[in-house]
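The instructor's notes for this session suggest beginning with a concrete chain rather than abstract definitions. Hand out the sequence below and ask the class to guess, before any prediction is shown, which regions might be ordered.
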Amino acid sequence: MANAPDLSVIIVNYNTRDLLRECLLALRHCAGVSLEIIVVDNASADGSAEMVRTEFPEVVLIANAENRGFGAGCNQGLRVAQGRYALILNADARPQQHALARLVAFMDAHPEAAACGGQLRYPDGRIQPSCATDLTLWAVFCEQTMLEKLFPKTRLFGGYWRTWWDFSSTIETEQLMGACLMLRRQPDGAFPEFDEAYFLYCEDTDLCYRLRRAGGKLYYVHDAIFVHHLGASGEGQRAEMVIYYNRGKERFFRKFHGALPAALCFLLNQFGALLRWLIGFSLTILTLGRVARYRRYASIFWRVFWRRMPNAHQ
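After discussion, reveal the predicted structure:
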């Protein structure tokens, strides 16, 4: 496109007004790259859309009347994006000054790259798992039996999220996080889109899998750094977030590997929920119900086991 910006940054927001403001302010100070910024607000109730209209008039705002989910929101932004590349960026993430220019330069230098992503860090500076290997039933087993938490520094149990590694170099990878995912336009000029059947979680797993099956390569770029407040839009809704995540994994296996792997994933997810409920319930009994976090933990995973969600989110 003539005179197209280098990059369209697409942010899907849901009730994270203050963090969204921080993100947009950080984008204003990014150097070395021309930007188009698109915010898709999924019917936030915290005044996010009005804040964007008032404080960031340069931003393209798409204000949905209902929460359409993460993938559908991303697709709305991708369809109107004018940039040479598109960056899916969480509202609770913010780039360091040269992070965007680093990703654009990497894509320019690697035409075989269908997508790339940066290094994600917690606000205290700790590194988050910023890329992953293929989602397999073994990965789900390690997750739900808590082996990945017990032995994160081993490749056998911590392999999926690469928790045995320090994320200190740029590598080709199987999966990038949807919190920070830069996409290249396809030969037809459009950006690849997410499967909107995933309401939340695993839509990035699905997209990365499809990009690789089509012959594209994915790269984790270690020196493009973003601060990420991981899960901010789901604060206070942990049970719902886990349920969405479990459903997303099951859909992924059903779509790409068939009914039996999907059923096995479902059973592993249910086992994991029951195991965590038993842990929370036992700790609640041992402390005579006096520790609120144990009661809350048990309550969350009881709901996860029975997949109890508000009616609007069934």
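Then share the key points. The CA atoms of residues 100 and 244 lie 30 Å apart. The chain has a mean pLDDT of 95.
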